[in-house]
Specification:
CATH class of the largest domain: Mainly Beta
Helix content: 10-25%
Order of helices and strands: EEHEEEEEEEHHE
Structural class: alpha+beta
Largest sheet: 4 strands, antiparallel
Number of strands: 10
CATH topology of the largest domain: Immunoglobulin-like
Number of domains: 2
Radius of gyration: 31 Å
Shape: elongated
Length: 194
């Protein structure tokens, strides 16, 4: 096995320069340290399960959209069911500190697929500043999803081909339905600065 040597210029204790050869041990130690550092950084970047792990998300039950309306300081909200009949919907609005929504929490008894609901959110300016994010309006909705429609969508092997992931999502749906869990969705619209 060949030995690796490195030629270095060194200073002795009396201050005179010496030329010498550092043994293979020093070179080997540096090389091994560099190799270990590279391997560790590659493991941290790639992660233990990165390329071969696929996780499905639950199908969306509700689509929300906000857009500026034609009136000054009015926002148009659009709600549409994407998966079955949604029931007992609670709609709430939050805003940045510089805005106030003159709209109380609204309730809808149901939202049917193919029948979107359009609402107008009236806004007013306040004396406060907008804050770091600027002016924004957020619409949130809490609702009871159509568990049967979600279960049928998840059980479809054409849409969810990995069986273990289908079982995982079906388990989540079963636990959620048993506990009568409500789903929550939200969207935010950032407004241009006045």
């Amino acid at each position: 096995m060949p030995q690796i040597g490195v030629h270095l210029q060194a200073w002795n204790s009396s201050g005179a320069r010496e030329a010498g050869q550092v043994g293979w041990l020093l070179a080997r130690r540096s090389f091994l340290g560099l190799a270990v550092a590279l391997l560790l950084s590659a493991g941290v970047v790639a992660g233990p399960r990165a390329p071969d792990q696929i996780r499905y998300a639950m199908p969306r039950s509700l689509e929300l959209a906000l857009a500026p309306a034609s009136g000054a300081l009015q926002i148009e909200a659009r709600l549409e069911s994407r998966c079955g009949l949604l029931t007992d919907l609670e709609l709430f609005v939050t805003t940045s500190p510089d805005l106030r929504c003159n709209w109380t929490m609204q309730r809808l008894s149901e939202l049917r697929p193919g029948r979107p609901v359009h609402l107008t959110l009236p806004l007013a300016r306040t004396a406060s500043g907008a804050g770091e994010l600027g002016s924004w309006v957020r619409l949130g909705v809490r609702y009871i999803p159509d568990y049967e429609a979600l279960r049928a969508a998840v059980a479809d092997p054409a849409s969810f081909p990995i069986e273990a992931e289908r079982r995982r999502l079906l388990g989540i749906l079963a636990r959620s339905q048993k506990s009568r869990a409500r789903f929550t969705d939200a969207t935010r619209l950032f407004l241009p600065r006045p």
